[in-house]
Every structure is written in C-alpha cells, then in structure tokens.
Amino acid sequence: SFRNVHYPTDGPDQLPPFGRWRTAREKIPSLAIQPFHPRARFTRSPTKLSSPSQFLTKVSTMPLLHIQTNLSLTAKQTSDTLKTLSSQVANWLEKSENFVQIILQPQQPMTFAGTEQPTAHIRWESLGFGQRSFEELSQLLCRLIQQCLGIPSERIFIRFCEVARSQWGWDGHTF
After folding, report:
1. 77: nearest Cα among 151, 154, 157, 156
2. Which residues are paired to 64 by β-bridges?
3. pTM for the predicted model, two decimal places
4. What are the average pLDDT values for consecutive 10-residue runs of the chain, which has 175 residues?
5. Rounded distance, CA 64 to CA 126, Å?
C-alpha cells in the first residue's frame, strides 16, 4: 500500500495549495485509501516500478497525436494504424501507453503543394517530449506514417505543441 503520498505544491504548476509538500494523511487524517493522482510522488513505489521518479516519468507527458489525412481507410486499416501509433509513441517517449491518445481522421478534404495526392497533417501535443529532439521525432513519425499509410514524408506536416501542465486535464484534475 502507499503510505506516504506527497503532492507538490510549490511552483508554477502546483497542485492543491497547501504551501508545502504534504502527505495525504496530513491532508485528510482519516483517509483509509490514498487518492490517485498522476503527479503524486510516492515514498514507496508501485509494483513493477523501481522508483518514484520512474512512476512520474511514465505518466508525465500525456501525449496526444491528432492525424488528419485525405486517404480513405478501411476499419481494419484504421484500427491497425491506431494500435501501431499508440505503441510506438509510448515506446519513443518511454511512457506508459495508458496515457497515450491517438486521433486518426481519414477522408478529410486536403491539398498539399496544389494537389490532392495522399497527404497528412499531424498535431502532436504533449506535456513534454522526453529526451528526443523534434527533428528525431519528426523522422520517426514520418517513417511510421509512410509505413502504415503509404504517405511520403515530403507530404506530411507535423506541428509539435508543448502544453503547460495547468492547461491539460485528466480525470477531473489538471497536471
């Protein structure tokens, strides 16, 4: 069980305003079950994770990949592409796939360079992008989109958006 859950409270993206790190038991003395929050810092780490920082690293980026393309895709192609992208994004960012969201919108009216040949616009939003550069992530993603959908990399635009923790919500909270 998690006996000491510490919540960060100082800094620009603070959690509950308690003025210092406090344990859940200090906050709610009668608390029998500790509340889960993805930014909680545990003094005793969850199963399969060796340290508190490893837990935070696994959930700290919350990536969202939004892909629009003018291709028509079958249900199977869509499903396979979503699964592949989700696992690869989690792998590239060294994050848990539990917090990766992929949106794939096929059959969008689009042109690129004056033609309606296969193209894609990708918006990648995240609380951070890990240790990889945008250029490296762009190369990896273009290669994967070309492999999954057959869209040449020169017909893909990618917009990387790093979102402030206070502007990203999940499960009724912000980060």
Report:
1. 151
2. 101, 125
3. 0.65
4. 46 46 42 44 42 44 91 96 95 88 97 97 88 90 96 96 87 84
5. 6
